[in-house]
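Preliminary data (for renewal application), delta-meso nitroheme complex.
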Amino acid sequence: MSNTRAATIDVELDEIQGNSLGGFNKDYQANLFLRFRDAGRDWVAEITNEISDSSSADVIQFNNQFSALRRQGVKNPESIISAVWVNLAFSWQGLKALGIPDAELQNFPDDFKTGMKGRAGIIGDVGNSAPDNWLDPFKDPANIHALLIVAADHSQELAQKVHDVTRTAKFNAGVEVVFSQPGITRLDQPGHEHFGFKDGISQPGVRGVDPPDDPIGNPNQGHPGQDLLWPGEFVLGYATQISDTDPNFDGPNPEPGDDSKSGPDWTKNGSYLVFRRLRQDVPAFNQMTSELASKLKISTDLIGAKLVGRYKSGAPIEQRKFQPGPYTPPSVDPGDPNAGNPAFGNDSSLNNNFEFGDDADGHFCPVSAHIRKAYPRDEVTPDGAPHSESSTQTHRILRRGIPYGAPFVPHDPDSAKVDRGLLFLCYQNSIERHFEYIQRNWVNATTFPPDDKKAQGAPNLLADPGPDPIIAQVPEGETLIDPKAPPIKVQHFVQTTGGEYFFSPSISALNRIGANQPL
Ligand code: N7H
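Predicted structure:
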């Protein structure tokens, strides 16, 4: 990544809803799935007033202030500043229910028109993750017209806002709540998901939004290890990544590609949103990791890190770059948090600054680890070297997930029965090219990442990598944890229990929909 050409772009942040480019990042979130009645548009006009104050410009400004307070040593900045955000996205059925003309509706891409239930076969929702086993509201997508997201720093502020926006005459006349799904971060382990791992560390950097922040002055890098991508990968109407590059260039192509376009013209500054309700069986996951640890004679910390690619603290397992001299793995695994340097988990200048190319056989970070399957960085992909990294950067997502359900309390039989998991949300310019591509070609593909030496008759790996050991929807997989040992059986404890595809329009498009004006 030695290129030094700077590239800037103006992004209309006031026009773009805040959870896409900004990221709400709140402790409390209400997710209201709505069905429109005939007067749905009048309510859209009303709620757009709220959404105008929850643009990406508003959210980014707030998040910057919040981070500045943290840097000054304030432990709980939400006791000094807080905000409540509101965003809205429509399913294709919802746009239809609002009376968007058929010629425009047909212009949307097939993935969005078909919806998540219809695409279950493509994204691998089978067995207990199949739509027949989803929660009732998601079994009948014709009733899910919109997703209203309300997010807040404090539970009382969230409750008040939800009350305010759902008690108006226009809401009662135009909308019905089909399903309400609360999200709440783990207050016992802030920033960690229910299996115990720190989440939300690695996100793509967006040009025109995230400033270059690289100590060696590379204008194409955000935080060290975070490539800056063209905003059109996530929002419509802007330059995109180019999927190939000069073979001598190290890193993704920094030149701007064509502007992203999808659906009718009024989709500019909009983004496609995937919502997925993923249940996690935490006691079963814990039991499996301790059984695997005794079988392999390693610590539970290390087996967890091998499955995910990061220790629970967030420290990447791939951290040789920071070891002085040639790295030798310790003969006894010191375990998390003493593995390597615990600061790797929290320090944004360290915790994402790694690649996989020097560890092609997965000796340190298994080729099957969740973060390696879901974002292979400089890994050779089926698109083939030397363009792999440029191509990989056309399949990134802005993840905006939040846990749901109370954390698991060991030895409490009632706690084991609680429904808990992750509400997985992500934004992109095309669901097929981003979320679905990751599911289909990487996460669920047992041969991904490919063995780059196999074709030359000297394979690096003893077997195929296997499915993603954390999120693959088949009950278990043969997973390659050690390149020179036979794969091991890993059971999977994440189950899809519902979801839908949405489109999050620009704020001016929302205004025009509400006012019943031509789009
Ligand atoms: Fe994953 N986990 O706790 O194990 N994820 N994820 N994910 N995930 C990541 O780097 C997890 C899910 C991605 O940039 C971390 O920010 C769980 C889906 C991507 O290096 C952890 C669930 C999809 C990344 C988890 C779940 C992805 C990522 C490390 C479900 C897409 C960034 C924290 C219950 C189809 C990789 C971090 C990168 C990171 C976990 C779901 C994708 C700890 C438990 C459905 C792209």
